[in-house]
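batch_manifest entry 22 of 60
target: Prepilin-type N-terminal cleavage/methylation domain-containing protein
source organism: Microbacterium azadirachtae
requested by: lab member K.T.
priority: normal
notes from requester: please return tokens only, no post-processing; we will run our own comparison against the previous entry in this batch. if the run fails, retry once and flag.
--- input ---
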Amino acid sequence: MTPRSQDDRGVSLIELVVVVAILGVVSLVLGTLFSNMWRSQVAVSAQSQATTRGQLVASEVERAMRNAVAFDVSADGSTIRVNTALGGGLQCQAFQLAADGLHMTVSSSPAPSSGWPVWQADVAAGSGAFISQSGNSVAYSFDALSRSGAQVVAAPVHFQGTAYMRNSAAGSLSPCW
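--- output ---
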């Protein structure tokens, strides 16, 4: 065997091709891993935001019902109107689940009968939306959508429960409705 001369130093073409192929495979694996991690992060974040949104809606409906002196659920179950024992600007409250989200109005008396602004856009009616039960409670059911931008990235978060009036004396929807 003869010693290498100055011109034989460096890498051969075969060695270079092997290194490039290995780096390509490693890059592809790392790219796929990071892409999956990013999609998972987006889905978890959207699900967390949907959960927070749903909890906010449920707590507002329950708060209005807890302080209600009278309430009314529409025939189609999409709307609940509440006259609360709270004074001032929180006396008349209403929630309506529509195709474009949850509409809400809060006012002193009297409240408008329609044209309420969208309060939560990514909330959709569940089965039954609002159902009056036994004169002093209402069952609610809705889905909080998990979106990132306009794209649904995870399953909706379903909320359902029953909200009860704390006041035993039934009042009137007037002066609110």
